[in-house]
Amino acid sequence: MSDMDEMDDGSGIIKKFMFLNRKAPHGTVYALEGLEVVLITAAFDQDVSLVFTDDGVFQLMKGIDTKGIEVKDFSKTYRALEGYDIEKLYVDQASMDARGLTEDDLIVDVTVLSVDEMANLMAEQDVVISF
Amino acid sequence: MPMVNIAGKEVEVDEEGYLVDLSQWNEDIAKYMAVEEKVDLTDSHWEVVNFLREYYAEYQIAPAVRVLTKAIGKKLGPEKGNNKYLYELFPYGPAKQACKIAGLPKPTGCI
Question: Tell me, what's the ipTM?
Fold first, then answer.
């Protein structure tokens, strides 16, 4: 057993990975599983972007309280991403507007993108994985 | 999952010996885990263990070793935030061993 980041696959190829988060944080396991995949990917030194769109923007909301549903509040973990050198976080403007949210409602610093900007960013990626 | 008796208290651990319910953690459990890991706990070890517990309280995850090393460097200085120092304290992996002693789950990204 060893920590992943001590291994070297020797290839040194860096691809652009985008993880697309589309679902509300709780009720399904997508958001938590997506976050775990992102944290694991970080060990491989890839170029990682995270996008939050549709109900996925709720994942980043401040003041989430999961006591009543007896599950872990992993929203705090998004604040650890910086330490994993994952600093490219994007949210979709239209999704924020539709839910009455602004950047001030979110627990991390994000870049808000229009539909066109988001489309361009997606077109640049080597891999897009949707959760 | 297996139960172990630590200082007269039954606690549940996973198949690799990590504490299942971290709210049960106390110093007796830390000492028990340290013996399991063949680590002789000193103040320097406690410093890392306590750091990890604070990290978990803030971020709700056990950090990968690279992240732990960097975060310790930031908080406790570069003479502690390096692999040599941390591996001397926890020879079988600082993240893995110190997390176990701190009652945290196995770090994400650790295989």
Answer: 0.81
